[in-house]
Amino acid sequence: MSTLLEIFKTMEYGPAPESPSAVNAWLDEHNRKFGLFINNEWVMPKGAKYFASHNPSNEELLAETVQAGQKEVDAAVAAARGAFESWNKTPGVVRARYLYAIARNVQKHHRLLAVLESMDNGKPIRESRDIDVPLLARHFYYYAGWAQLMETELRDYQSVGVVGQIIPWNFPLLMLGWKIAPAIAMGNTVVLKPAEFTPLTALLFTEICQGILPPGVVNIITGDGRTGAALVSAEVDKIAFTGSTEVGRILRRQTAGSGKKLSLELGGKSPFVVFEDADLDGAVEGVVDAIWFNQGQVCCAGSRLIVQENVAAKFIHKLKARMEHMRVGDPLDKAIDMGAIVDQSQWETVDQWVKTGVSEGAELFQPDIKLPEKGLFYRPTLLTGLDPAAAAVQEEIFGPVLVSLTFRTPTEAVELANNTRYGLAASVWSDNINLALDAASKIKAGSVWVNCTNQFDAASGFGGYRESGFGREGGKEGLFEYLRPKWMERPRPDFTPPAEGTKTTWGEHVPARPPMPSTQRANGSDKPRVDRTPKMYIGGKQVRPDGNYTLTVLDSGGEVIGQVGDGNRKDIRDAVEAAHAAHLSKPGWAMRHGYNRSQILYFIAENLDARNAEFVERIVEMTGRTRKSAQAEVDAAVERLFTYAAWADKYGGEVQETTLRGLTVAVNEPMGVVGIACPDEYPLLGFISLMAPAIARGNTVVMIPSQKHPLSATDFYQVLDTSDVPGGVVNIVTGDREHLVKTLVQHEDVDSIWYFGSAKGSYHVEYESAANMKRTWVGYGLPRDWMSREQGEGHEFLHEATQVKNIWVPTGE
Ligand code: NAP
Ligand code: MG
């Protein structure tokens, strides 16, 4: 006779399927054929091609949707443009009501949305019902709040305009919410393209919008990557993209130099770090959630397990035992853990990766569990014993495949965690709060979950470091993707990018031969002037240019007033190396207190002011401007240093009010090494206005001063020398701005580029930055009033100087 316990242990779960009938009825109402949603109407373009969307769990056809071409995309963009003016003028408090109504209706249609999501995508109903749809509603509530507060809390900002949004198939509704809610809350209108595998819930969502929003505010167009590309080249003011790093790169290049704003949420290979003192059983459950949630098709999936060596065997043993109990099957069954892979092609890619891992020497583990006979199911998979450099460890697999590595010391754990070109998320497990938070602060990722994983909420920003993209979605910081400073018009650069496929040419620099000396006499003196060629400033030292060439500096009348070093690639590389070392070396610039950085900025201001008259003379000499105007520039530069001395200890971040019980802290971390090309206007103030916010927030910089008027910058290193600025924090390389920037953009150790040169140069910077997805900030050759506080300082600068990391720390039982 079996005991009750045995019966309980051997008892099979019965299926508990959710009914698809309401969804089928809705699909039938539309004859399983959908048009495009433009201006609150269904548009069935004449002669359109259709493509099918399937249910990956049984491969049945669900419905057909339109493959939109450029003409349809343009029509949708025109609809959004038509709606923009009045939507933008609609008071925020009124827009709040619209968003609130959408949130309410998402809740009313919760079940229909969830079931359709599971049918179209293959994800377990438990997830779509308990996570995707509730978060969708949550985003509309949250951003209804920001619409309500916009006029008082964001009064220095305005909407961006018409936004094109492109989303992937892994969280069709959630990604739609992340994109649409903040955009329309801030007064923009949108055209969104869902992924071709999963267009249906976006179309169901439009029926909610139809009854609520004015026509043209939200438009949904379907199609594949070509439709996406057409949207990117259409007359939009911004592109917001979530998807692969590969396509993100294409979009960066396609929008380069156009003045369209761009945010990219890209791929990842996120570490899941388990220290020896972690609650191992809790961590095993964490792994299950990290890598088998949504079949591992999660951008921030904890796909690289990094476990301390002395507990690794035990941990892997527990994990394998847990995997034997995973239930893979019908997504509509409420009791399953894993549903189906979205598409056959994706299934094959995943399988190919597993084979690659095995060929790279991995030991493969897949539990002996039953899979349904039909449908795109894949076993939860673990690959152990791989080298950290193996492709299966480095590349995003985007499926239910976990790779596992081991480490000995906490330092090694952080090194392994950061040994990736991505930086989207990380999960850290330890019962030692010091250790866990120390690792969390050192891992380069946009979200770090301590003793938890895959936490999301509208009140917290989400987005990547490095090749995981730039820009944030969610939280207050997510708003800035959909806002522009009030004074700034949509940049319309005076430069036409070369046709696609044309090789970009960024002029090679040929060093000019400097003029031979002529006997210059100092004013009224009969002795020759002391010859002085300012050097470059690298690692806190004055150094001669590597190439031993100089550039001649002329005054406004064309007379030679000096020479500066003509920097080359080597000089830039040296400067980057110095900046990199200063950023990291103990205690690195980033690790200093804001108080300490603020003291140094005050000291710089003090020393600059002490030499006020000399800097005024220099500006007059170089630019031919009046003494009064030069004086105003120097005074403004001193004041600006004061501004950032102030900001040095007041922009650390904030506690986010998420749904987590515990703390979610948004930390404004420095970007790292920032390469800065200065404008020609205001040779001193332009330089200071860019250097000061960057170093105030803990970055180290490589400054390329105005090429025309470099002498204020070269005079300035003497100020730096006397102001306790550690060597390498500010490096100055003079020379041909375009040529030097090119080397900076291509440098792997430069984290961000700020460029205030020409429209053409801006194009090149944006284009070339795609190689490793550097964040860029360019001026498109458009004027900026550096003298004004509105345009020359403040939040825009601080925002560019930082990247947000959200650290989630649950508390209590
Ligand atoms: P994908 O291939 O990059 O596609 C994303 C979207 O871009 C789809 O709508 C796609 O259209 C469209 N697209 C493809 N080529 C395009 C082009 N040349 N121009 C414009 N649009 C184009 O990515 P996926 O395979 O769908 O999604 C998986 C990726 O998304 C993973 O890398 C994952 O990490 C990432 N992801 C990131 C986040 C995040 O927040 N960071 C969130 C979720 C997913 P079709 O697919 O319809 O053809
Ligand atoms: Mg589908």
Q: Could you please describe the fold and organization of this structure?
A:
The strands form 8 sheets. This protein has a 10-stranded mixed β-sheet, with helices on both faces. It has a 6-stranded mixed β-sheet with strand order 9-8-7-10-11-19, with helices on both faces. The mean pLDDT is 95. The protein has 813 residues and is of the alpha/beta class. The longest helix has 29 residues. It starts with a helix and ends with a strand. The structure holds NADP nicotinamide-adenine-dinucleotide phosphate and magnesium ion. Magnesium ion binds next to strand 4.
Radius of gyration equals 29 Å
- The end-to-end distance, rounded to whole angstroms, is 39 Å
Q: How much of the residues is beta strand, in percent?
A: 15-25%
Strands of the widest sheet, in order across it, are 14-15-16-13-12-17-18-32-26-25
Q: Hetero groups bound?
A: NADP nicotinamide-adenine-dinucleotide phosphate, magnesium ion
Structural class: alpha/beta
Largest sheet: 10 strands, mixed
How many β-strands, per DSSP? Answer: 32
Low-confidence stretches: none
Oligomer kind: single chain
* Helical content band: 40-55%
Could you provide a short overview of the structure?
The chain is of the alpha/beta class and 813 residues long.
Please tag this protein with its features.
binds NADP nicotinamide-adenine-dinucleotide phosphate, 10-stranded mixed β-sheet, 6-stranded mixed β-sheet, 813 residues, single chain, 26 helices, binds magnesium ion, 32 strands, alpha/beta
